[in-house]
Design brief:
Layout lengths: L6 H9 L5 H19 L2 E4 L1 H16 L11 E5 L26 H8 L3 E6 L33 H8 L5 E6 L5 H7 L2 E4 L19 E6 L2 H11 L29 E5 L9 H16 L3 E5 L4 H19 L19 H9 L4 H14 L4 H25 L2 E5 L15 H6 L5 H6 L3 E8 L5 E8 L4 H13 L9
Parallel strand pairs: 2-3, 2-4, 7-8, 7-9
Antiparallel strand pairs: 1-3, 4-6, 5-6, 5-10, 9-11, 10-11
Helix pairs in contact: 2-3, 5-6, 7-15, 9-11, 9-12
This protein binds glutamine.
Length: 483
């Protein structure tokens, strides 16, 4: 049984009873148990429940009952997305034992379509980070080279899909957290348009810029899951009411006649040589397929990292103020504490990166500094949006490398926050302006490490975006994960 098949192939095997869901899920659990020691993608493995669900789906198929659009597909879920009855820790001591009383909308939609939640996966604490090293439960490791980081913050999503420990995953992307691990682990990751996918049940980090997004090994699987998770949700007023779109239909239409803008600022100084040459190769492939490529300049990118960290930290400091260990938290006796001393003691249990963001956020929002930092950052954001609007008057897509460098060694940059922040330069534009972006695996470097290419489209143009990503995917043949 090949655990590496695409969800699309798997569904047809399941529907024709050529494969038993129970057997496939049991195999997947064996695989998780075998590779977890090396990669540490999971925080919670939902094995027993997954097997029970699998049996139910097999029975539905045997008795010719109607089955859902994702029948029997094992999906991992980032541990900042709520799952009723299953821990949701945010990889933080603050929520170490938290069990949400309800499912996030995306999770209930998956369940309605007979997907199987196989477990909850690792992240940087509260999704703050780019390497998954800032998890309370320890880092995840890159399946392509266990000494390297898998990207982040949805590292567990990227790793579990890449290492064949599930078929797809849901991550969250506030500044690149779906696309960075997708790129570093050689899988596909989509950040949808702001408002396309419900955030109800996503534990907020910076809610004005984040979206839940899928990770899969193939673009066609991303299309499949988007058909299920996208659309208006009465529990999230930021979701947009629009007619449902079928992302699977016409996926292979190609990109002939489309105009693609190569973002100049994403291929300048500081970009790894092999990443640069992969980007150029991707451009030639797309040209061979009939697309026209032109250079596009987005000079607001220069200020984007500063604007992003100001806005994201400000929102984080507000969102995370609820963690006072009274409503939920860990076991710390209240005896002997004044209220303020208690809260302060409790909050010293955030990890170093979260603490840094909370301090930064409180500072930029404080009286006297608000205009100088927060407001200024919002002006940069508005400027970026107008540059993006202008760009999409001229081109259908924008393109660049997802990450400026190759996956690096665990621990190498952990004490250098500024260097880590700068790695988000190519991804955060999509978050600050709301547009969708996808990372497609494109090449494996001479040292055996993955390189992903990122394509952006205008808001709510996911259908076109997936068609372009599919065309790019079909133009390359990548090695299988060496694990
Ligand atoms: N690296 C970015 C940050 O640390 C992005 C995180 C994310 O998208 N959740 O904020």
């Amino acid at each position: 049984m090949n655990l590496g098949i695409s969800a699309t192939e798997y569904l047809s095997l399941v529907r024709n009873s050529q494969i038993s869901v129970e057997e496939f899920i049991a195999k997947t659990i064996d695989r998780i148990k075998m590779v977890e020691e090396k990669v540490h993608a999971y925080i919670t493995i939902n094995d027993q429940d997954a097997l029970n669900k699998a049996k139910l789906i097999d029975k539905k198929i045997r008795t010719k009952e109607k089955t859902g659009k994702l029948s029997g597909i094992p999906i991992s879920v980032k541990d900042n997305i709520c799952t009723a009855g299953l821990k949701t820790t945010c990889a933080s001591k603050m929520l170490e034992n938290f069990i949400a009383p309800y499912d996030a909308t995306v999770v209930s939609r998956l369940k309605q379509e007979d997907a199987i939640i196989i477990g909850k996966v690792n992240l940087d604490e509260f999704a703050m980070g780019s390497t998954t090293e800032f998890s309370y439960f320890g880092p995840s490791k890159n399946p392509w080279n266990n000494e390297c980081v898998p990207g982040g913050s949805s590292g567990g999503s990227g790793v579990s899909v890449s290492a064949l420990e599930c078929m797809m995953s849901l991550g969250s992307d506030t500044g690149g957290s779906v696309r960075s691990p997708a790129s570093f682990c050689s899988v596909v990751g989509l950040k949808p348009t702001y408002g396309l996918v419900s955030r109800y049940g996503l534990i907020s980090y910076a809610n004005s810029i984040e979206q839940i997004g899928p990770v899969a090994r193939k673009v066609e699987d991303i299309a499949l899951i988007m058909n299920v998770i996208s659309g208006h949700d009465q529990h999230d007023d930021t979701t947009v009411k629009k007619d449902a779109i079928d992302y699977v239909e016409g996926l292979d239409i190609g990109i002939k006649g489309k105009k693609i803008g190569l973002v100049q600022q994403m291929t300048g100084d500081g970009v790894d040589k092999e990443v640069l040459s992969a980007t150029n190769k991707a451009i030639s492939k797309l040209q061979d397929l009939g697309a026209e490529c032109v250079p596009v300049s987005l000079d607001s990118l220069e200020h984007s990292v500063a604007a992003y960290y100001t806005i994201a930290s400000a929102e984080a400091s507000s969102n995370l103020s609820r963690y006072d260990n009274l409503r939920y938290g860990f076991d710390l006796g209240t005896g002997g504490y004044e209220f303020k001393a208690y809260v302060s003691k409790v909050r010293s249990n955030f990890g170093s990166e979260v603490t840094r963001r909370l301090l930064l956020g409180a500072f930029v929002l404080s009286a006297g500094y608000y205009g100088k930092y927060y407001l200024k950052a919002q002006k940069v954001r508005a400027m970026m949006k107008s540059q993006i609007d202008e760009a999409f008057k001229k081109v259908d897509f924008l393109i660049g490398p997802t990450m400026p460098i190759l996956p690096f060694k665990l621990g190498e940059k952990i004490d250098d926050p500024l260097t880590l922040y700068k790695l988000d330069i190519n991804t955060i534009t999509a978050n600050l302006t709301g547009i969708p972006a996808i990372s497609v695996p494109f090449e494996i470097s001479s040292s055996g490490l993955p390189i992903g290419i990122q394509i952006f489209a205008n808001s709510f143009e996911e259908k076109n975006l997936l068609q372009a990503a599919y065309a790019l995917q079909q133009s390359v043949h990548l090695r299988e994960v060496p694990l």
